[in-house]
Fold these 2 entries.
Entry 1:
Amino acid sequence: MEKQARSRMLVLGRIAGLYGVRGWVKVFSETDPRDNILAFKSWYLGPSRRPCSLVEGRRQGKGLVAKLEGCEDRDQAAALLGQEIAVHRDQLPPTCADEFYWADLEGLSVETLDGISLGRVDHLLATAANDVLVIEGDRERLVPFVWNQVVRDVDLAMGRIRVDWDPEF
């Protein structure tokens, strides 16, 4: 994978609220499982991607709370409300052979087994049955990410996904 793709920033969650008076914050996590975000000790906050160290984090009720370095009181924590939590792509653990991070699939070209271009992956959706590729091309297509049935090959180096899909659908 090219260096630029490995070093880009990925948003994993956001500061969603305040917890107590000693600078703790509530965290909304988009990781699965939810508390995986706490495994990353270096966070980058907000649009400026200001570096911040996670001092401590834990489950609290149905959510997560975190203590960040330099955030000692409720007022300092309040200044962080709504800020995105990002990490460098290369901080993520490696995937297995047939596993992919959604962020690595976004932007890849998608073509049928016959070489017909369907467009590029705009984003993915999680559904109860399976994940779905949202492909933007001559029109929007929703293609289920079902390995070996619909999705036949993902070549990150070539920037391409090959699918067994009727281009008219």
Entry 2:
Amino acid sequence: MTSEERQVVLDLLDSGEARLLELTAGLSPAQWHFQETPERWSIAGNIEHVVVFENFILGVVRDLLGQAPEPSRAVGVAEKEPLVMAIGHARAQKITARDAMTPARRWTDMAEMLEEFRKTQERVRVFVVEVQGDLRSRFFAHRSLGDLDAYQWLLVVGQHRARHALQIQEVMAHPGYPAG
């Protein structure tokens, strides 16, 4: 990863983390758990999903770096980067989470979940700062975009935070959202 690429990922991670923490600051339990409908995620569900997703992707990228490069899979992957960079702002197209990453009330306490969120953010950030190796020749398939390289997956993590910040804003904008 070039120093420019590393900085792009770090900027996405930092801005996404800041926005999510800003949105979740000072919420009441009623606000934290409010769901627009039973099928839609609460703010707590969104944060839980972000934690689970990021830990999963961090594990995937670490595993990929332990595997042999597969440059033959690179065909067409670079052209997907604009799509990856749009994930955070493309709320019109829904992406269904893998079952293992859907909210399951893994943390019931708000403070405990936010602490886990902060720990996860720090693990991801440290990984991005320290990672060495060829991220561009190791691949993992995205549910809707197909093969992405390991660097693009780090971009996805940053964009994913922005996407869920928007989803949380949608929850907060619902007419039934509690005032406090």
